[in-house]
Amino acid sequence: MAEPILEVRGLVKHYPLTRGVVFRKQTGAVKAVDGVDLDLPAGGTLGIVGESGCGKSTLARMLVHLERPTAGTIHYRGEDVTRLSGRALKRVRRNIQMVFQDPYTSLNPRMTVGDIVGEPFEIHPDAAPRGDRRRRVRELLDVVGLNPEYVNRYPHQFSGGQRQRIGIARGLALNPEIVVADEPVSALDVSVQAQVVNLLARLQREFSLTLVFISHDLSIVRHISDRVGVMYLGRVVELGTDAEIYDHPTHPYTQALLSAVPVPDPEARERRERILLGGDVPSPTHIPSGCRFRTRCWKARERCALEVPLLEIPAEYRIWEGPARHPSACHFAEERRVVPPGGEDGDEPDGSGEPRR
Ligand SMILES: Nc1ncnc2c1ncn2[C@@H]1O[C@H](COP(=O)(O)OP(=O)(O)OP(=O)(O)O)[C@@H](O)[C@H]1O
Ligand code: SF4
Ligand SMILES: [Mg+2]
Fold it and tell me: Global pTM?
């Protein structure tokens, strides 16, 4: 694995719950992110998957320094950025940019596309000399497959997919090393989703970006990621290459998620086993003791309530080389192929972008 560009250790974000107006008293906390460890190798794509509310966006906001963690560290090129402030933080933030989920609300409707894409240059004036900014913006529009002549148009004059391209152009303006894309296609029509995913995949390769691609859609994540982290209730519970996670999952939660992915091939669909999870996701204010997945896990035993399983290679897979040899936070991790071979959505991204309009 390449040298990590970002090392996340024990990352925590707890939002306090308070009562009272004059004397505010903390009565508990929403444990949105509750101890995440991740290495981000330079130049690859890490997919993060998990159900709604598991802490994906909170993690994303901490990675790009829009929010300070409650605890834990984020080392960027060896430096703990959670301790930085002022100019030092600004220098780091320039290299780690975010693409937001909703292209309808994340673009200011009163600004032209040129001003939106060029806005980062106002904050980091040294990134492009004033006289050169217009040219840079047009170049960025071209890179994301938009007509540079549209530079004076407003967001409402674009489709959802085109707006997301504008958001991506803005994310690339400062030539960042890392881009965190939080559900970048969830608000788009299915027909447009593949185009935007393909665009991100192309940009990742072309600019050697390190991409974090967050989605609740496992099929989309598989298309674009070379490594995948599965999140449950504020923690990463399984981490591996796309083949390790999709074809050789060892964590019961990953297996349950995969068993619910639509399978296009009718024959493979017949052979696929469905794992139906009981109960609801517990509230992040009351996380179960021991393994946080135990209230929904069909394999749960006494040990699961007593001991927190660590995200590490399970003991029984440590001694042999094989696809099950990857970190999994389960005391009883066991390889189980849920999606039969040929059962995945076979459409490979073709790298083409949306035709220019
Ligand atoms: N500012 C905040 N104050 C209090 N609680 C918050 C705040 N932001 C997020 N949360 C809570 O933290 C938990 C994780 O939220 P988050 O938005 O990170 O989840 P998510 O995985 O991105 O979900 P989705 O897939 O729906 O976008 C949720 O229970 C959410 O209600
Ligand atoms: S540790 Fe126990 S409860 Fe948790 S996933 Fe493994 S078997 Fe299930
Ligand atoms: Mg989210």
Answer: 0.92
